[in-house]
Write a structure and sequence with these properties.
Blueprint: H1 8-16, E1 29-30, E2 33-34, H2 37-43, E3 44-47, H3 59-70, H4 77-90, H5 111-123, E4 129-133, H6 141-155, E5 160-164, H7 170-178
Parallel strand pairs: 3-4, 4-5
Antiparallel strand pairs: 1-2
Helix pairs in contact: 3-4, 3-5, 5-6, 6-7
């Protein structure tokens, strides 16, 4: 948590292995062991602060496309489809799965629905740990609360969630505090 330019995203990028520029010094250890980036990349997902989704396809098509690209090829079509359906339910998008993503601020999904879609696209790769860079930024209190409810749904599946957050309301701050409970 911190103000703009405090280094939240940079820290998250370094921890997740996505930082490609600058100088990084020191060791990253997980459970006391040096982090092996190739392994870590396979078990983690990363939701960027900005949502970049294809406007011409539906929510379900977006998540399905991600599943086909990211899940192992030995997983059959039916299992992938069932997993996509499970993710859509967990992220609370199943009721609008046939809606077009469309263009931000013009048509289609709200900002909060776009955030949840971004999370679903990462979650469908079945990561053990998921990084979220300011998932509530730019959202009103109601929309932020919905995103936090989705984060709680993810935690209930025994996945680790690492988030940055910028100037949260007390309700959102307490929601982060309660995620592990």
């Amino acid at each position: 948590m911190g103000v703009s330019d405090a280094g939240k995203t940079t820290l998250m990028d370094v921890l997740s292995g996505r930082k490609t520029g600058g100088v990084i010094e020191g060791d990253i250890r997980i459970g006391g062991h040096p982090k092996v980036q190739d392994t870590y990349a396979r078990i983690s997902g990363y939701c960027e602060q900005t949502d970049i989704n294809s406007p011409q396809i539906t929510i379900e098509e977006s998540v399905t496309f991600s599943a086909w690209l990211r899940l192992p090829s030995h997983i059959d079509r039916r299992t992938k489809s069932e997993f996509v359906a499970d993710v859509l339910q967990m992220i609370e998008l199943e009721d609008i799965k046939d809606d077009l993503v469309a263009y931000p601020g013009v048509s289609g999904l709200s900002n909060e629905q776009r955030k949840r879609l971004t999370i679903a696209i990462e979650l469908v790769s079945n990561p053990s740990i998921i990084f979220m860079d300011e998932p509530t930024s730019g959202l009103d209190a109601r929309a932020a609360a919905i995103v936090m409810r989705v984060v709680k749904n993810i935690v209930k599946t025994r996945r680790s969630v690492v988030c940055t957050i910028h100037q949260p309301s007390i309700d959102i701050f307490e929601a982060f505090d309660e995620v592990t409970k």
